[in-house]
Every structure is written in C-alpha cells, then in structure tokens.
Amino acid sequence: MVTQDDNVPWGAMRTAVFFHAHPDDEALLTAGTMAMLAAEGHRVVLVVATAGERGLADLPHGEELAKARTGELHRSAAALGCARVVLLGYGDSGLAIDGGVAGDRPDDAFIDADLEEAAQRLAAILKEETADLLTIYDPAGGYGHPDHVQVYRVGGRAAEIAGTPIVLEATVNRDLLLKGVRLAARFYPALDVRSFERAYSPGEAITHRVNVRRYAGAKRASMAAHASQATGGDGDRTLGAMLKIPSFAYRFVFGTEWYVRRGLPRGVRLRHPFDNP
C-alpha cells in the first residue's frame, strides 16, 4: 500500500496515470518522474496500449514477444514503485522504415482503434482512480510512431471525458537533442540529422523540467528490465547503448524529464508535475 509522505510539498497523496504505447516507453520518457512521485507517496498507475509484439527484438514477433515484453513491463513497474499496471490489449501497429504505418499491421492495431471507444476505456480507468494527472505524448508522437500519435489522441480525449485536471505531454527537449545528434553525426556520418528536426518538442514549448537525478538508479533499473529491447536488428539499439553509459554520467544525461502542459501562460517553467503557475 502506498502511504503519504509527511514531507510531500505538493499536498495530500494524489494519483498520476502514465499512458504509454509499448512496454519500455515508460522507461525512456517518464521513469524518473514515476519513481519520484511514488517515493513522495503518490499513487502511480501505468497504462500501456499494446504489448509491443511487433517491436524490434531477437525473439519472434507475436505471442512469444508479447509475453516476454509484458513480463518486462511488470518488472519495470515494480522498480519504479507503481501501484497498478493496466494493459489495454490493442495490437502493436508497427513502424515502417519510411515513417509510415507498416502494411501488415494486425486487425486490432492501436492506430486503427475507434478513437471514442479507446478514449472511453482509458477514461474509465481515470475515473476509477480519480486521477489528478495524466501523461500522454506530444502531437507528433515524439519520433512519429503511429501508436505514439494515437496515445496523444486517445489520451487527450480520455482526459476530457474523465475531467482529469492536469494533462502533461511527455517529450524530449528537441534543442538539446539536436545538439547531441549533430555532435554524434561528426563520428557517424550516416546518422540522419534531419529526421530529428521535427521530433519531440522545441525547448520554448516545454513547461515542466523535472529533476530526477535522485531517481537515476530506479530509471536505470526500469530500462534494464526491458532486456528484449537492448538487442535485435543489425545495428546498435538505443536502449542497449543507454545502459552502457557509466553511472556517474547516466545521472547527468538522464537527470531531467520534460513535459508540455497546454494552456499555460507563455514562458512558464515548472519543476514538478503537480505544480501550477
């Protein structure tokens, strides 16, 4: 049972629902925030649209990969202190190399789900949990995966239905990302810098910069739980490369998580998910 921490500066225990597309998305974008809120005594609920059965991995696509990734998801959630994990059970839509939707996607692909029906399912969870906060993705779905775009659409509508007061778009500071990518391109000329120029959100749009360095250990454990996503394919996997970063540098590289809250006054900069201007 999650208990209230007397030192929580943001009032009584609240409930935060983190909505993601696939297992491991939580580890990459919001794990530090989730661990922080859980440590502060808030209730953290993780909702995932698909089992990620079409993700790049050494295991065959389908039931075998879905089972493996579901187990990894629960191990990640445990490392972060989640009180509840919900899988909505939609099919993984997959990602075509050219940025479009892969043609052989399953009949139950999340991208093809009826928006209102999917939103009602998520809204039912938000109402049941009396959620104070919901995280989704930015309109571009971060790097453009169709399931991530659908998370933005479904999550936004679900919050409207349930009356969830705070909706944060989990993202990455594009300005900082581009600096890193351009530096990396000097050593890896084949790296397509242009593909990152519209990914995630520009720094000026970001409203929340959450310092999660104290929870770097939990975030790293969350990433490590998704072992199937550390290998697979012909090149280096992003998650596998991240886990090779030394601990002292990891805290610096992954010590901030970024969010956008629509409708706030221009120039607002907040440091905690429950902060208001």
Automatic annotation (TrEMBL):
Q: Where is the signal peptide?
A: none
Pfam families assigned to the protein according to its UniProt record, in alphabetical order: PIG-L
KW Electron transport (keyword) present:
no
Under the heading SUPFAM superfamilies, the entry gives: LmbE-like
Q: Which UniProt keywords apply?
A: Zinc
Annotated protein name in UniProt: GlcNAc-PI de-N-acetylase
- Species of provenance: Microbispora corallina
